[in-house]
Amino acid sequence: MTDLLQPDILAALQDRAAASAHPRELVVDVLRAIQDQHGWVPDEGVRLAAQILGILEIEVEEVATFYDKIYRRPVGKKVIHVCDSICCWLGGGEELLAALQAKLGIAPGETTADGVFTLLPTCCLGACGDTPALMIGLTTYGRVTAERLDEILAKERNSITAIGSPPL
Prior knowledge:
Layout: H1 7-19, H2 27-38, H3 43-53, H4 57-66, E1 78-83, H5 86-90, H6 93-104, E2 117-122, E3 134-136, E4 139-141, H7 146-163
Parallel strand pairs: 1-2
Antiparallel strand pairs: 1-3, 3-4
Helix pairs in contact: 2-3, 3-4
């Protein structure tokens, strides 16, 4: 189970948990560390987080399933979060989602055959003034048109081959 984290990262998280008056506050940090190392958080990761923090697995699972940027199943190297809030919907979000599905050949919740992109809806990206919006990794793209998608997808795909896949 500890192969989900590098030994130095595991030790640092254990130290932080031991020094914390409220280790439960570190659940997201531990889950992110596991995800950064493993790509997603498997059941073993939930168990490991609970063990590190000295809390119940269900307490970790509650947090893991609440946050849409914590992945409980395998995802591609690049996760595309498409905003589906009312603002983005009114601003062309449905058309953007349809264009992404057509260009990638996948439906929401699926990953491309080459393992590069996973397409996920998300409640809001906070870019209501720049609709429709999507987020890939830590980059938010606003006022995205179907025409801009080729440029955005190429840039994101090239960033994998140029420097390896940065943490999601």
